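call fold(seq) -> tokens
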Amino acid sequence: MPKTDSAMLEQSLTLFTPEWWEQAPATTDARWAREEHAMEPERLRSRAYRADDQRAVVELLLSAQAAEPGFDWPGAGQLRALLADSALDLARDTSLWEDAHGALIAFAVLRAGRYLLWFTRPSARGDGLDALIVAWATLRARAQAADGALAALRTEARSIQTERLAALTRLGFVAHTDGYSVRLTRSLATADPPSAVGELPAGYRIRPLAPAELSDYLALARELFPRASRLPLSEGRRRALMADPAYTPSLDLVVEAADGALAGFCHSALRPDERERLGRRAGWIELLGVAPAHRRAGLARALLRAGLLALADYGADCALLTVRADNTSARALYEAEGFTPLFEERAYTLTLG
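ret:
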């Protein structure tokens, strides 16, 4: 049975102390700390995120993504929006770790008392640092759990993240058995262009989202995606996303019915930070949905094609999206429009005693 909360996490609370240093001088973590980062145990420092850390945290994210295939969420703009959301308690629910020179080596954020996101500098990766991060999150999750409730941590990993998956197993995380998601991709190369939108049913039109209708948009999105914990479906976080430099209003599309009601949406997105820093030119279909009363009229296909054409116009070389594996109707649509699977994505939970 893997070491979990009762063993690895307790050990992590004494990690990088002089006692641990003497007992485990030959471990990978000790070698990394001593040789690569000149980390004396008493000088490892953790603190909460501050607004002036944004550039360094985004750079850390991009470094981690460059070194780890499959680690592509959040994007830089999504991370900035998450940290700008007033609903997040930055002082308590974020932490970063610095080495003896003050260089940033790890960052973590805990949302809603259980959703844990963390990433580290590639050269600093190791069980010791991961356990230290999970120990911090454990304390925060327990502090926020309702009286008598069993606290838990939840995170995500992709099937091609072999090192991450092995680390999660060693930390005691267990894969969810209630379904998983699939990452799909489609080329947007000139030789394989998206199909034209075609004629919409009478009375419908596709246009960019108007900021004044955000509340209606979010109400529909929450109705259609009640389990999508990582999507920016709170008003504060969505407004932060729309204020971010990476946001492109003309890619945030809705379909309006004849009576003016929102019948559906397709939020496509570019990632300019990743393009500039990592040379990646992928576009994303972040969110696509149609209200139940307006289905079976071809609106989802029209919205998808409009999003793909817009991404191609902005120079994206491929489109990516994530869909629940058991959403057979959506998968059939995507596959008919040229998408193919890349890998699986699952949630993992660590139950805290």
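Residues 8-175 form a domain with the Aminopeptidase fold (CATH 3.40.630.30).
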